[in-house]
Amino acid sequence: MNFLELIEKRYSVRNYSDKPLEQEKLDIILEAGRLAPTAVNEQPQRIFVLKSEEALSKVRSICRYAFNAPVVLLVCYDKNVSWKADKYGDVFDAGEMNATIVTTAMMLQAAELGVGSLWVRGYHTQDIIDKFNLPDNLVPVCMLDLGYAAEESKPSAKHFSRLPLEDTVTEL
Prior knowledge:
The protein is of the alpha+beta class and 172 residues long. The chain contains six helices and six strands. Helix 2 (23-35) packs antiparallel against helix 4.
């Protein structure tokens, strides 16, 4: 399968099977995140692998979008490490962007391995900080549910709705 086919096939899984995610596949997914590009290669991402019953219970108590995935990655960035620019009066911290790039790499690697995923941002940030006792320098960006799609899982109807390229791209 080529890259465009992979992206087209991948969908947000909201119903996971009971099949556990193999450590070998999880390691490959995490390696994809490690290899993902970050601004000035500062690598500010900090990823928490939530797979114990205790950790998953915490997630499920504050976020309804865990959908019983056997593994949830909590993706943060370290604001003490992330690259920052202050030029031309435009202050920019690349931490959130970098964590997003890393998450995308892991999500697509999961799809290549036949592992379902769901990008999650439906939670209150302070709840995550409090439940997982995150230090002040770590900023939660998103969670990535990982696991095998249940047999009855299917893409949402919106998955197949794409704007034409000319509606999203302008050549100047």
